[in-house]
Amino acid sequence: MMRLSEFLNENITAATISRMERKLNQLARGLYQLTDALLDGNRTLAVAAKLVPIGVVCYDSALAFHELIDHIPRSVWMAIGPRDWRPKITSPRTEIALQSQGVRQGR
To answer: How far is CA 13 from CA 3, 75, 86, 91, in A?
Structure first.
């Protein structure tokens, strides 16, 4: 799973990516994955983490990842800082929580 910017950093052009459309699935705007990539239960968490790179998986999403609860959350919960850019994500269903500044750890 890679963002367009990661492809560009590796000197792979947008034109090359569009020619590879049979080998790549576009998961979201600017986010791609190989068509034959293995799918697991944490794929939505990985997609959310790529779409919110400054975010931290939190609440029920973190508890489910660590198998501390029995249900699967309806949304992926991501925490960001109060002054951080709030992304607009359509898929996967994502909820954004704001971290208080006293709790925040270094990046």
So the answer is: 12, 33, 28, 25
The length of the chain is 107
> Which among 10, 29, 3 is positioned nearest to 88, based on CA atoms?
29
**Maximum Cα interatomic distance, the chain, rounded to a whole number of Å:** 47
Predicted model pTM? 0.75
Looking at residue 60, its amino acid is D
pLDDT of 49 above 70:
yes
Between CA 63 and CA 9 the distance in angstroms is 34
Which tokens go with 9? 């950093």
As a whole number of angstroms, the distance between CA 79 and CA 27 comes to 21
CA distances from 58 to 40, 95, 103 (A): 19, 10, 13
Model confidence pLDDT, tens digit, residues 54-91: 999 999 999 999 999 999 899 999 999 998 988 888 88
